[in-house]
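Researcher: I'd like a structural prediction for the single chain below. Treat it as a standalone chain; there are no partners to consider.
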Amino acid sequence: MGRAKKRHDGRYVETVTAILPGGRKKRKFFYGDTAAEARRKMLEYTGELKRGRLFAVVADEWWEKHQKAVKYNTVESYRAPLRDVKAHFGDWAIDAILPADIQGFIYDYGLHGAGLKPRARHTVELRVNVLSLIFKYALTTRDVIVSPVQEIEIPAECTRAVRLPPDKSIMAAIEQNAGDNFTLYPAVLLFTGMRRCEALGLTWEDIDWDGRRIYMRRMIEFHGNAPVVREYSAKSAAGVRSVPLMRKLLKIMAPRRGTGLIFPGKNGVMTKGEYCEAWRRLNLGVTAHQLRHAYAGKMHDAGLDVLSSKVILGVSSTSVAQDIYTHIDESRAGDEARGKLDAAETPKKTRVRISGHYRGRRGPL
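Model: Treating it as a single chain, here is the predicted structure.
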């Protein structure tokens, strides 16, 4: 590291060879209109190396790369968590952040740092996920040697909101009222377990009537009010996910068989505004996601194993499918227990033989 040198273009340059974590060398150049400006930039960098780069700087680098590699909805779901973790750790040296610091932040955030109502578990988990991704990136840039986001506990008070399947009367009404246009939509969700974006992207040509399968080849995402058509990105090598065409749904859809989008909008693809208005008019009292859980319940009742359910539902792991099954079991446990307890308390009618004839009698002999 010597004095700043003047370039042919009139600017000054300072050069430094930095030793990064792991022994890797990196040569850096710092330019300025004056020798003092070039030296100031160089000194700022070398001082940053000694104390570690700021968390906010590394987080912004990660975000610039990460948001290009994930779906639009994922990007939107990460914006608020990224803002929150940067607000807390932004001016910290990233290599000085310890697991205890992460755990403290998660507890304070989850419990609002006071006696307020705890946040939802999923909301807190998103902050943990974003922190984990940032530190995984920091490992690749050698800003940290080990990630502090390990064994982080979510406060027990932060409970998970569970959307249970709708009751049988609602499911029966969906089946009975399925007709033309959008009234068919909830029946498709109920008998396929599709996500909203998957069902809206369906065309009549995606249905294999003879093989009794429905293929998902595209998705409809809403970017604001505007619909965006994306090719379906499945986790299988084929890149296309399919679900069985149940007999009940076949009977409903076959008479309405057409061409093109099954659920179009006024000008082609349905906008978010059109979708929300159409769903509101159905007045079902449930969400599209609850109908997906209802389909999971059908698989559960049919005795399908968790691995098969994972494939059909298109979830990332068997643990996700198991969680859905667990919620179904929990929702039914009370009803089953009540029925069994009532039956146990009700005296059974027995038949007693008296003088060659049987007569009904309640209770023990």
